[in-house]
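My hope is that you will study the protein record below before we discuss the fold together.
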Amino acid sequence: DLADPAAPARLVEFCISHFGRIDGLVNAAGLTDRASVVDATLDDWASLFAVNARAPFFLMQAAIADMKKR
């Protein structure tokens, strides 16, 4: 669940423990909401932002920390 703020670091740690290292990262997960902007709630926006903006940033941050070692 990439909406969980701790998920990106856990995912990167899992990949490193399973594969030994990270060679690249593709941020391809994302949510869409078919609701109108007028009808969207703060919770809708928070969920979209958490998965589509915050999670990729933290995934990149964690993956780059491993990739910089090489």
User: Anything to note?
Assistant: The longest helix spans residues 42-67. The chain has one domain: 7-67. The mean pLDDT is 93. The helical segments are 7-19, 42-67.
